[in-house]
């Protein structure tokens, strides 16, 4: 069995309603906590992107809380918080790339 086969995991799919109330599918790319904080964050990418342009590769970040089976997502509106999340995400991506 190849190394990649052993590490394969079923992608986690979540549904996020848009401004019109239509549920859109997103794949969870990564979940993480920021050091020194009890906040949890997730990075997601749209699954059913109708456009063929650069938006297809766009990654969205949300702060989240889990209450039993319920998942509550919060948009990140504070610039300082966004910068912290983006820096942590980029650091984690770099670590993953180094291990491949």
- Spatial order of the strands forming the largest sheet: 1-2-3-4-5
Structural class: alpha+beta
State the share of residues found in helices, binned by percent: 25-40%
Determine the mean pLDDT.
83
Strand content: 35-45%
What is the H/E string?
Answer: HEEEEEH
How many alpha or pi helices?
2
The number of strands is 5
Poorly predicted residue ranges = none
Characterize the main sheet.
5 strands, antiparallel
What is the structure about, briefly put?
By secondary structure, this protein is of the alpha+beta class. Helix content is 26%, strand content 37%.
Please tell me about this protein's structure.
By secondary structure, the protein is an alpha+beta fold. It contains 2 helices and 5 strands; from the N terminus they run αβββββα. It has a 5-stranded antiparallel beta sheet, covered by helices on one side. Strand 4 and strand 5 form a beta hairpin.
């Amino acid at each position: 069995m190849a190394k990649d086969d052993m590490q394969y995991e079923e992608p986690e799919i979540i549904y996020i309603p848009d401004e019109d109330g239509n549920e859109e599918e997103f794949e969870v790319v990564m979940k993480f906590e920021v050091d020194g904080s009890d906040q949890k964050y997730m990075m997601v990418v749209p699954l059913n992107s109708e456009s063929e342009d650069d938006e297809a590769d766009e990654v969205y970040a949300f702060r989240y809380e889990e209450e039993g089976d319920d998942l509550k997502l919060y948009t990140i509106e504070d610039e300082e918080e966004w910068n912290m999340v983006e820096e942590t995400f980029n650091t984690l991506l770099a670590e993953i790339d180094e291990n491949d």
